[in-house]
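can u do me a favor
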């Protein structure tokens, strides 16, 4: 109470390690930057996908762009609300995988996991390849180096994400803000102007090859739904948010839905009003940019911002896939090291695995966006459908207040996503979608085989069972030696603390060296028996392994303790003989004895 200050309760504080605490987790705005750029940047190719389908019925069919986009926007609203529910029901992340595991059974959860893995990897590769292609459009001299550009971008994203999701979010906040402002500027200025300010690209003659029927509209709808990829990433990355993480993640999902829907509908209005058709050398977004800003510096600046956004959209996968892989590891469906986190709250093994898979795919397709686009949306629509159907099952089982309304909403969403996915698969099957049909079952088989292995290991180890009582057995510690030295003393000293009986074993082919060793041993007299093995073939490993095998006969507990010199500086490591490490490797492979390597640290 001194000096009028109120008495404060003193509580012991445990200092946080680097990477712990809310400082290294996402706010809602940071989450929008880190996990939503994939979905937001899809406006660069989603509306164009609709136009490319509808133009087959002639320029007059482009008026259907707006109705198709409105249906997609309605589906977007359903998905945003649904994933808000997924976030609340499954706050540990996982999205469609978590829903399927809880409500639809193990087989469907494997399907959801495999489809999400495919979608995340393709998100990285498509985003990087599209960004590189856009950059090469502005600077044609970079055209022959698209693969190198993609790999450099992938390396930079990997390095940033290995430092933590929060750091990557801060890096992405400015590009995300510039992209959103640029696209909204195109929509607002374009609608305020009575006609396009400028026209870019070369005109192509349009020949109608089919009529505007239901099938064509379904194809346009399914192609345009590529603009919805990435909507699920926030639900998959809920653990990355600060507390209260559920509320923050739901708020981020709503912001994503509002921004994406506004941009899609605004661009569809411009396409319909100005009858924007595909032109040579430019994208539909570039035409809308020129129509709103003209061909001055804002036009080039916007194209560069779009290029950067497409490249950085790959970061969505780095925020979502490592979390999903950690959940799979926790369920014994991936190697357990994928569940390990570094001091910073990031699953680094998942980040590295995603980077390697993306690198292999980019090299395989030579960073060609068009070869990957047919594969892109199949996986995400499987995830959409699974999560919607799973939530219907959840509401029907739990029956909370208002469950019927929620189940109806998710049921409508499931019908729409299933229809879109089936049409997309049917229309893109021969263009490369068949690859996904093959890869997803293979991934499901891989997950199930890994889970079966862990189950068998648990059975052999008796996990969950009470083991039999311990039995104390006579033990022998064998120490391989070469000559009498401080290294020998170091090894024997350690061995005497481990077992009842210790024996030193030397392998020599020269009788003179054997006599010298025995004389030195007798003078030293360490109180440990020395056995010398004659090796006429000058082999060290084989005679020792055979000696150890004989010593271990009858079930005796045997340990081999190998003293090994360890230099202070790594550059001297190659100067040491590696016979100790070789012996340890062979003993582990051929015997069941305990193998220990004891380092003797040098001062140089």
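np, heres the sequence
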């Amino acid at each position: 109470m001194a000096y009028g200050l109120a008495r404060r309760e003193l509580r012991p504080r445990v200092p946080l390690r680097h990477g712990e605490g809310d400082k290294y987790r996402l706010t809602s705005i940071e989450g929008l930057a880190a996990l939503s750029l994939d979905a937001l940047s899809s406006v660069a190719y989603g509306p164009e996908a609709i136009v490319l389908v509808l133009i087959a019925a002639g320029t007059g069919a482009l008026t259907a762009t707006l109705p198709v986009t409105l249906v997609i926007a309605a589906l977007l609203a359903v998905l945003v609300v649904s994933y808000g529910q997924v976030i609340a029901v499954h706050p540990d992340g996982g999205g469609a995988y978590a829903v399927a595991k809880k409500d639809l059974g193990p087989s469907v959860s494997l399907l959801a996991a495999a489809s999400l893995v495919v979608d995340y990897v393709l998100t990285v590769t498509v985003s990087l390849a599209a960004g590189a292609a856009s950059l090469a459009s502005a600077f044609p001299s970079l055209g022959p180096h698209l693969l190198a550009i993609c790999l450099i971008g992938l390396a930079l994203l990997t390095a940033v994400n290995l430092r933590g999701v929060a750091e990557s979010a801060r890096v992405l906040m400015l590009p995300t803000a510039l992209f959103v402002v640029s696209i909204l500027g195109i929509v607002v200025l374009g609608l305020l102007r009575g006609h396009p300010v400028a026209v870019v690209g070369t005109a192509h003659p349009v020949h109608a090859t089919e009529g505007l029927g239901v099938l064509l509209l379904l194809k346009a709808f399914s192609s345009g739904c590529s603009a919805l990829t990435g909507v699920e990433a926030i639900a998959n990355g809920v653990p990355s948010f600060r507390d209260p993480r559920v509320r923050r993640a739901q708020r981020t999902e709503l912001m994503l839905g509002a921004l994406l829907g506004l941009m899609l509908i605004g661009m569809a209005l411009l396409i319909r009003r100005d009858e924007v058709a595909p032109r040579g050398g430019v994208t539909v977004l570039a035409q809308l940019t020129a129509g709103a800003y003209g061909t001055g510096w804002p036009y080039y600046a916007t194209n560069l911002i779009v290029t950067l956004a497409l490249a950085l959209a790959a970061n969505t996968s780095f925020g979502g896939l490592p979390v999903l892989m950690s959940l799979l590891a926790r369920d014994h469906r991936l190697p357990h090291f994928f569940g390990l986190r570094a001091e910073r709250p990031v699953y680094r093994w998942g980040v590295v695995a995603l980077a390697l898979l993306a690198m292999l795919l980019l090299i395989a397709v030579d960073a060609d966006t068009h070869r990957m686009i047919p594969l892109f949306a199949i996986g995400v629509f499987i995830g959409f459908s699974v999560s919607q159907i799973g939530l219907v099952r959840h509401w029907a089982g739990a029956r909370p207040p208002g469950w019927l309304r929620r189940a109806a909403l998710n049921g409508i969403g499931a019908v729409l996503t299933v229809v879109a996915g089936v049409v997309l698969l049917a229309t893109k099957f021969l263009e490369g979608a068949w690859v996904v049909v093959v890869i997803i079952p293979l991934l499901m088989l891989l997950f199930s085989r890994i889970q079966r292995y862990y189950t068998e290991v648990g059975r052999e180890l008796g996990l969950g069972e009470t083991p039999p009582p311990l039995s104390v057995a006579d033990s022998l510690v064998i120490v391989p030696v070469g000559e009498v030295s401080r290294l020998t003393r170091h090894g024997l000293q350690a061995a005497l603390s481990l077992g009842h009986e210790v024996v030193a074993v030397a392998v020599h082919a020269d009788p003179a060296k054997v006599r010298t060793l025995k004389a030195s041993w007798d003078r030293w007299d360490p109180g440990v028996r020395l056995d010398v093995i004659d090796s006429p073939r000058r082999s060290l490993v084989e005679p020792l392994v055979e000696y150890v095998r004989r010593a271990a006969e009858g079930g005796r507990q045997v340990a081999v303790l190998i003293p090994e010199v360890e230099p202070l500086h790594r550059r001297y490591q190659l100067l040491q003989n590696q016979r100790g490490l070789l012996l340890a490797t062979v003993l582990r492979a051929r015997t069941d004895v305990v193998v220990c390597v004891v380092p003797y640290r040098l001062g140089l």
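The chain has a mean pLDDT of 81. hope that helps!!
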